[in-house]
Write a structure and sequence with these properties.
The chain is of the alpha/beta class and 92 residues long. It has 3 helices and 4 strands; from the N terminus they run αβββαβα.
């Protein structure tokens, strides 16, 4: 039973690799916090300056997609940005 599970998992991984080689992937970036924190033991935050630099780089080099868009029409590597956890700094 365990061997069958490993084979199925391996086939799934190979299928994902083949899909990414044949089509351009949409990469989803998940941010937790945009804030200057004095202490960030879980490394959940990116500073506003670094976040701005990342957005500038991404927007100048890649399409930025929205969830409601049809991702299957994208012919090049694209990015989607998401925010987790609902911290107040995401709003502000």
């Amino acid at each position: 039973m365990m061997i069958l599970h490993k084979i199925k998992r391996g086939i799934g991984i190979l299928r994902n690799i083949a899909d990414n080689l044949c089509t351009k992937p949409v990469i989803v970036l998940t941010y937790h916090r945009v804030a200057n924190l004095p202490d960030d033991p879980h490394m959940l935050a990116v500073s506003p300056d670094h976040f701005g630099e990342q957005l500038k780089f991404l927007s100048e080099n890649y399409p930025i997609l929205r969830f409601e868009e049809n991702w299957t029409t994208c012919r090049e590597t694209a990015f989607v940005l998401t925010f987790d956890d609902g911290y107040a700094d995401n709003l502000y």
